[in-house]
C-alpha cells in the first residue's frame, strides 16, 4: 500500500533512498560553493566543516563497531586519516589566528582534523614531553600556552615538521602582539 508522496509503507528503504539522494544533492551544492577560496577559508565555515568531519568520523567508527543486523561487519578498513580532496583542503591554518583565543581554536580544529586522538594517546605519541592533563588544560583555556605544550599537542596529533613550523610562526606572532599590547592578554599563561 502506498503512503503519502508515493512511498510505500512496506519498504522503508525507499524513504532512505530518497533521503540519500537529497543529501547527495546538498553535498554537491556545498562542494560547488566551497570552490571559492575565501569562503572555504572563512573561520565559521572551517569550524562547521571540522564539526562535520568529527561527526562523520564518529558515526563511521560507531557503525564499524556495531554493524547491526543488516550490515556486514566486513569492508574496507582505513587505518590512517585519508587526505582531503584536491582543492578542498580543510586543514586548519594557524596563520589566520590573531589572538590567543583564536590560536587555541586553531589547535582545537587541528586536533579534530587529525581525528581527535585521546589526550593520553597524544601524550604518548609526543614522548610524554608534556603530560596529557597539561594538554587538556591548555586546550580548555583561552590563554596562550607555552610553546612546549603547543609542540607536544601537534606531535601528539601526529603532526609533522610543516605543521610544527606553521603553528610556531603563528605562536611567535601572537606572542609578539601580546607583548606589544596589541592583543588583550589573558591573566595566565597555561602550562606554567
Sheet-strand content, in percent, reads: under 5%
How large, in whole angstroms, is the Cα Rg? 21 Å
Helix coverage percent of residues?
A: 55-70%
CATH topology of the domain at 92-192: 434 Repressor (Amino-terminal Domain)
Instruction: Please report the number of helical segments.
Output: 8
Give the termini distance in whole angstroms: 69 Å
If you average the pLDDT, what whole number results? Answer: 76
Sum up the overall morphology in one term.
globular
Largest sheet: none
Question: pLDDT below 50 for ≥5 consecutive residues: which ranges?
Answer: 1-8, 70-80, 185-192
Task: Output the helix-strand order.
Answer: HHHHHHHH
Classification by helices and strands: mainly alpha
User: What is the CATH domain class of the domain at 92-192?
Assistant: Mainly Alpha
Number of strands: 0
**In CATH terms, what is the architecture of the domain at 92-192?**
Orthogonal Bundle
Account of the 3D structure:
The protein is an all-alpha fold and 192 residues long. The protein has a domain at 92-192: Orthogonal Bundle (434 Repressor (Amino-terminal Domain)), CATH 1.10.260. The chain has 8 helices and no strands. It has helices at residues 12-33, 37-40, 43-65, 100-113, 119-125, 132-139, 147-156, 161-180. The longest helix has 23 residues, at 43-65. The radius of gyration is 21 Å and the shape is globular.
